[in-house]
Amino acid sequence: MTEVIKNCCSKNYLARMKYHAEQSSSWDFTWPLMDPPLPIEVRFPKIRLIENTVRVEEGVLAGLAIGLFIQINDAVDGKLSKHEIISCQISMKDRHRRDNFHTDYDAQDDVYKILGILNTSWGDDWGGGFKHNDITYPMIPGDFIIFDPSIGHFAEDIKTDAKRLAIDFALRRK
């Protein structure tokens, strides 16, 4: 059930979100969550915007995330609005961070995710494609990918020092 939503939001909106994310003091390095924790060299920063409810301390950035979700929902004729947003986060990666093959939820959780990048430009040769179910999806600014997070996935290696900021929403079917 992987679906690509093409060009569903403006690059100006993405730029605004990226700017606010870059200015945020809420980045943490607890990801990926493991017990025991992984060494700092293999962790990457994230900002959590929604955890079952909007994190009000994230203010403008959380509001922009909800606005982005509305644009994505409009692009698919409102079919997402009948589901509950259970999380939203922004992550940052570059060529110094290799991603791990992982799942985010179990199939019985009945959750799907939406993923896109906040960068307004991303070179074809910069890497960082999204690999899901043995298919690689390029990360194109303005496009978002709906996918099943219970199927193994990962970000391909990024080949540049440019920071790639990705946003993802997890939705539970009602």
Question: Could you explain the architecture of this structure?
Answer:
- The strands form two sheets. Strands 1, 2, 3, 4, 5, 6, 9 and 11 form an eight-stranded antiparallel beta sheet that branches. Strands 8-7-10 form a three-stranded antiparallel beta sheet, with no helix packed on it.
- It is globular and about 40 Å long.
- The protein is 17% helix and 32% strand.
- The model has no long low-confidence stretch (mean pLDDT 92).
- It is an alpha+beta fold.
- The longest helix has 17 residues.
- The protein contains two helices and eleven strands.
- Helix 1 packs antiparallel against helix 2.
Key terms:
11 strands; single chain; about 170 residues; alpha+beta; 8-stranded antiparallel beta sheet; 3-stranded antiparallel beta sheet
Topology (SSEs and partners):
Blueprint (H helix, E strand, L loop, with lengths): L2 E3 L5 H13 L4 E4 L12 E8 L1 E2 L4 H17 L8 E10 L17 E7 L12 E3 L2 E3 L6 E4 L5 E3 L8 E9 L2
Antiparallel strand pairs: 1-9, 2-3, 3-4, 3-5, 5-11, 6-9, 6-11, 7-8, 7-10
The quaternary organization reads as single chain
- State the distance separating the first and last CA atoms: 17 Å
Instruction: Pick out the low-confidence regions.
Output: none
Q: Give the overall pLDDT as a whole number.
A: 92
The percentage of residues in β strands lies in 25-35%
Which structural class is indicated by helix and strand composition?
alpha+beta
Alpha-carbon Rg, integer: 15 Å
Element string (H = helix, E = strand): EHEEEHEEEEEEE
Helix content: 10-25%
Main β-sheet description:
8 strands, antiparallel
* Number of E strands: 11
Shape: globular
**Can you count the helices?**
2
